[in-house]
Amino acid sequence: MTYNPENRRFPLSQHTIGPFFPPGFFQPGDNDLTRYSADATPTEQGEVFILHGNVCKEGRLPVPNMILEMWQADANGRFRSECDPEGDQADPDFIAWGRSWTTMEGDYSFRSVLPGSYEEDGQRRAPHLNVLLMGIGLMKPVTTTLYFPQFAELNAKDPILNLVPEHQRDRLLVQPDGEVDGVPAYRFDILTRGPADEETIFFET
To answer: What is the count of structural domains for the chain?
Structure first.
């Protein structure tokens, strides 16, 4: 990039997005969608689970201090939003949104409940999790949508998942991974940059 004397604009360095926040910026329980705060009573609706995994880049190198945000419907497929015609019936104890960040090893985790299915624009959405990433190595936030393997019939009809070529859809499935703290766990590792057939699938927003 060159300096333009007519508008006196100088080139800026091509840094990735910021600012970046230290772990102390986040509050305990930020990654727990089952309650409104760390000392609040958790929801009694739905099946609690843990989603965890690793964020890495090319060469499978871990990406530390990556911020992840996750949002979803409640156990009955409702959102606490005026955009949802059934929003007034949404679970009052379920916050539906959370934030996590990666450790120096690139690890992250969320605690939530299995989301319900719902109708959107006349089409049935399969239970899913929306995840946004921002941080080191990304020029802008990126978003992906994760699905559960046990809902194969609903997955096959989900309009967003069907935007992905059929042979690649399994790359958006979380994987059962035993238990963590006595509740079912699922794993989803995220590759921000790498070979096209391995890099995590992100959607334009």
So the answer is: 1
